[in-house]
Write a structure and sequence with these properties.
There is one protein chain. The protein is α+β, with helices and mostly antiparallel strands and 530 residues long. It is built from 17 helices and 14 strands. Strand 13 and strand 14 form a beta hairpin. It is globular. The C terminus is likely disordered.
Length: 530
């Protein structure tokens, strides 16, 4: 354990600071496809009874119209966020009719690209720019990619902890700057160690053959309708996901918030020839926000992002420039098909310990060589993580995945112990023990369990996924929301519809003017570009 981690744990392990560990916020965004009873992608629009996707705070869509996204309120205890996520699922099922939610990260067998509907958010300027952005994604990556689902884990540490560390360590700069740079240091460590999350929690080792639509690949055939890799943990996070030539090599430096924002700002302004050939409009209709490497900053497909709650119409980078980093969004977690919510409490407790470790441990500045090493370790783990004797690279030296993973868990253990001391229980230590057992026995990992289940269903990803989706649908339908919960969500839906209608009624100017103004806000006026 590093001296810095020792000092920080000692500082926080007292009656003054320990309670602050319970004051950070946690939230979950869960994506899931709507499918019919046969496991085919729903062609129907988002259920109107669930509210307006543009303005509803908890139930919306992402990318494809059929890709639902459930967003929990931010809570100090992740168990409360999971309870809220359960309530959202149970209410949604009262409005889905004969449809259900797909239980996997990788999509069901998909129809022709032309029959996959892009998410629609109404006729307001804000709604249209969200839709045009997704049109651009469809042109750049294909609509099939818009049907992949994941779990996003939002995590923050109490601002008072950052202030306490700044005072104890006599770090210069105002509180916003110090907090932001600490989050960036946390992200550096996350990039070093996130391969471990893919081994422990990856749950997409196989996919429907039709997903690749004839693209070249290196997957093996398990059956006529299923492709896989024998030791894969997460094909979703492999190069089969949101990757393209334009983003190759686009790895923003994480040595300061300024460097990170400057890198993305350049990518949002740098033209890309293939996109220039398409143009921004076809037959007078907007089809992408711009013809640059990225339409907006969020198009960069990162495993983790520094985040700040944005105002309506504000760009993510504007919010970070103005108000600094508020939390991080972990984006690499697969949907676990054996968990009704896609993620469970035990996994969440481990994520809390892992992320706090990344935040408190020594985090030296990085460079291109280390960035490439991190990328290789991650890529190896998602495709071959369960391969016996798999070797990763740590500081240029080879080390087995199992040994390095166990070493990391030993370093995380005192962080978990501190979190348990704050709570007065041992839930974080218990979760660490479960992860140790996975490192000692790969058959205990979700990816191995998924492969076992697929083999039991005629080696068919589709048959397993359909069966599991039906099981989970029956469980949710057997627990309908209470009358109070129903009224709460119906009111959220009513208010969201009213808000969207007001936005459409009160807006001024043309969409062309709106999008021109939006695009202009990547100019040198941004504080990150000196």
């Amino acid at each position: 354990m590093s001296n810095l981690l020792n000092r920080r744990l000692a500082l926080l392990d007292n009656d003054t600071y320990r309670p602050l560990l319970g004051q950070g916020l946690r939230g979950i965004e869960r994506e899931t496809l709507r499918v019919d009873a046969a496991g085919h992608l729903s062609p129907k629009p988002h259920p109107a009874a669930l509210g307006a996707t543009l303005t509803h705070p908890q139930i919306t869509t992402d990318y494809a119209e059929s890709l639902m996204e459930f967003i929990t309120p931010a809570e100090q205890d992740i168990s409360l966020a999971l309870e809220k996520l359960d309530q959202i699922h149970r209410f949604a099922y009262t409005k889905l009719g004969d449809e259900m939610l797909w239980s996997q990260s990788m999509p069901c067998p998909l129809p022709d690209e032309k029959d996959i509907q892009i998410a629609w958010y109404g006729n307001s300027h804000i709604g249209m720019i969200k839709h045009v952005y997704r049109r651009g994604l469809a042109l750049r990556y294909g609509k099939s990619m818009q049907c992949i689902a994941g779990i996003h884990y939002n995590y923050s540490i109490s601002e008072n902890i950052w202030k306490a560390l700044q005072k104890a360590e006599n770090t210069s700069g105002d509180a916003m700057y110090v907090q932001s740079e600490n989050y960036i240091a946390m992200i550096r460590n996350f990039k070093r160690y996130s391969w471990l999350l893919m081994y422990l929690f990856g749950a997409s080792p196989a996919l429907a053959t039709s997903f690749l639509r004839g693209r070249t690949h290196q997957l093996q055939s398990l059956s006529e309708d299923t492709l896989y890799l024998p030791y894969a943990t997460s094909l979703r996070m492999s190069d089969l996901g949101y990757q393209n030539n334009a983003q190759d090599g686009l790895v923003p430096p994480y040595n300061s918030l300024m460097d990170y924002m400057r890198s993305l700002s350049i990518a949002v302004r740098k033209p890309y020839p293939a996109y220039e050939k398409i143009g921004t409009q076809i037959n007078g209709e907007w089809v992408q926000i711009n013809t640059n490497i990225l339409q907006i900053e969020n198009e960069f497909y990162a495993t983790i992002r520094p985040k700040r709650v944005i105002h309506t119409g504000e760009r993510p980078i504007e919010a970070l420039c103005a108000r600094g980093v508020q939390y991080v969004e972990v984006r690499c977690m697969d949907v676990n098909p054996f968990d009704p919510l896609g993620i469970n409490l035990e996994t969440s407790r481990f994520l809390d310990a892992f992320l706090l470790f990344c935040a408190l441990d020594e985090s030296p500045l990085t460079n291109q060589a280390e960035g490439e090493e991190n990328t290789r370790n991650f890529a190896l783990t998602v495709k071959e993580g369960r391969r016996p004797g798999l070797m990763l690279s740590h500081g240029g030296q080879e080390i087995s995945l199992q040994n390095w993973g166990l070493e990391l868990l030993e370093k995380i253990a005192p962080v978990a112990a501190l979190l348990d001391a704050q709570r007065g229980d041992h839930v974080h230590a218990d979760s660490l023990q479960v992860q140790r057992e996975k490192l000692q026995d790969p058959d205990l990992t979700p990816s191995a369990q998924v492969m076992t289940a697929i083999r039991a269903e005629n080696n068919s990803f589709y048959q397993f996924a359909l069966k599991q989706s039906k099981v989970l649908a029956e469980q949710f339908r057997a627990r309908p929301p209470s009358e109070e919960e129903r009224r709460y969500f119906e009111e959220l839906a009513r208010v969201s519809v009213a808000e969207q209608e007001e936005m459409e009624r009160s807006q001024t100017g043309s969409f062309d003017e709106f999008i021109t103004d939006y695009r202009s806000r990547t100019s040198s006026q941004l504080c990150c570009e000196s």
